[in-house]
Amino acid sequence: MTDKIQIAHGGGGRLSSQLIDDQIVSRFGDGPLKGLPDAASLPGINGRIIYSTDSYVVQPIEFPGGNIGNLAIHGTVNDISVAGGKPLWISLSLIIEEGFEMSTFRKVLDTIKSSAEECGVKVVTGDTKVVAKGQCDKIFINTSGIGEAFSEFTLNKTNIKPGDKIIVNGTVGDHGMAVLTAREGINIINGPESDTASVHRLVESAREFGGHVKFMRDPTRGGVATVLNEIVENNNFGIKLKETELPVSPGTHSISEILGIDPLALACEGRMLLVCSPEVSEKILQKWKKFPEGKKAKVIGTATEDRGMVLLEAVTGGTRLVDVPLGELLPRIC
Amino acid sequence: MTDKIQIAHGGGGRLSSQLIDDQIVSRFGDGPLKGLPDAASLPGINGRIIYSTDSYVVQPIEFPGGNIGNLAIHGTVNDISVAGGKPLWISLSLIIEEGFEMSTFRKVLDTIKSSAEECGVKVVTGDTKVVAKGQCDKIFINTSGIGEAFSEFTLNKTNIKPGDKIIVNGTVGDHGMAVLTAREGINIINGPESDTASVHRLVESAREFGGHVKFMRDPTRGGVATVLNEIVENNNFGIKLKETELPVSPGTHSISEILGIDPLALACEGRMLLVCSPEVSEKILQKWKKFPEGKKAKVIGTATEDRGMVLLEAVTGGTRLVDVPLGELLPRIC
């Protein structure tokens, strides 16, 4: 047993098999992973299949509120969920830097295991590569995921009409801010903690509102600002937000003020935006508030006639345009 | 239009969208990729689902016979194929180093597109991350893939009996050797070329032999030696190979001799091993020889009573044990 990852751990020989048996199969191998080493054999799906992938390169790999392991599960589970699906199976592919601490590796895998269990998904197939020191940064994780579409949803942003409501399930920008503070070594009492979490229960609880739910999305890279602009792009409506209604945690708020960063442009990893007809917005809020991940859910805005524009009614009274950030606010936040 | 990848290309803002529209959606976007940016919605699958993933970190990313783009498609398509499935859909996730040449990026994407078309699979969902210079090595690619299981196969290595035949569809070790020569700058006339290719047509053509086909696998990392040892492990039989029957290309043979490398331990990326009952081996060979990727197919060995052992009858007459390489023969070959 070595305490660091070696190049030979990725070489396909005996050390590779040992690493996979000891660390991967021991954690995830009670499922289909056990049978076929390079592919999983799974039962068929009657409804439509939802399929998604993401690579996670967050730096640092540990931050207040989580690590790269939570992100790798929550991110892909959330992509499937907000597409209107029930996440079922996950693939897990690791690129590890030679010299990576085995103890940290085990911690990340433990997080993946516990997050997957919370989300009700199974890691069913995987891959492990090792590259020489300096050829990647500690560990990069790819997950892809398969889900089954809920038949109740008919998501289509072109169905949105002025008057429809925009709901978010909690404070915005905490993940981006938590990674920023971890990276820069900013230590603040009651500082921001990542919101990394799964939204799959929120999506399931909105199923009964079927066609009234017109759009769902998790605001990750580019934040709420980017998603809202994508919604209005080439569409016949705009969106107006109220700054007074925008949930921002005290930690994220104070650092945003100091650094001049807009929390709307910061990534979330446990939030979802949902656009629905006004008659169901309060009902959805009631349902969501029963879950820890929906406790602070709020209507933050309304669809308007201002075609193509996302506007924010500021605390001070004025109105400003919420634009898409041009480039990288903060690289490697997920 | 910039000629190098910038950090902002991965930031989730305008430059990200532009890169994805110009380079990804333009090539793959006629399918489900177009509709839902973070997840694909696909028709259901009645039979069992075959699901696989691999990350590709080959260095150098271009080598005689292919580049990282071919590998990323062939590798995952082959994993699904040898598990007895028809590959259908591919996810494509890119981690790109800041400063990576846009022209090389386009070349790799073109290769992915053409390889996917040849294999009859569709890239349906994806992700693009950019990391700072020095935080990865040019480009890492993850593909995962979904296929539908062919009902004819009942693959199980415990069904193998002494007398069963081991078939390979062509020369062994060429991919590993091609990458080695490219990396070390060894230039030889008629040197080794990677065998990277899809075996999906070979698998389809073996369907009619159903239960006579007991095992299929692509010998990638660890080569033929590793796969054969996996087959005999904890089983009631052994395997005997004949060196005189082993197809090795002249280029790979000569460099193997000079460097003292066993081609059996080198990776292939377009080869498959198939174990079948003796009554169908010639019929499978006949079918395979009709395809370019099966033209040099051969029976290379036979299952024996020598429980747990893989033996090679050498050209010189003696017999040696074929063992699993302990560690990394050649890192980053796929």
Overview of this structure, please?
2 copies of one chain form a homodimer. By secondary structure, chain A is α+β, with helices and mostly antiparallel strands. Chain A folds into 2 domains: 7-149, PurM-like, N-terminal domain (60s Ribosomal Protein L30, Chain: A, 2-Layer Sandwich); 157-321, PurM-like C-terminal domain (Phosphoribosyl-aminoimidazole Synthetase, Chain A, domain 2, Alpha-Beta Complex), CATH 3.90.650.10. Helix content of chain A is 29%, strand content 24%. Chain A is built from 8 helices and 14 strands. Chain A has helices at residues 14-28, 68-82, 102-119, 174-184, 200-205, 223-232, 250-259, 278-288, and strands at residues 40-42, 49-56, 62-63, 66-67, 85-97, 122-131, 139-149, 165-168, 213-217, 238-242, 273-276, 298-304, 310-313, 319-321. A 7-stranded mixed beta sheet of chain A has the order 9-11-8-12-10-13-14, sandwiched between helices. Chain A has a 4-stranded mixed beta sheet with strand order 2-7-5-6. Chain A has a two-stranded antiparallel ribbon with strand order 3-4. In chain A, helix 1 packs parallel to helix 3. The first copy, chain A, is globular. The two termini of chain A are 31 Å apart. Strand 2 of chain A pairs antiparallel with strand 1 of chain B.
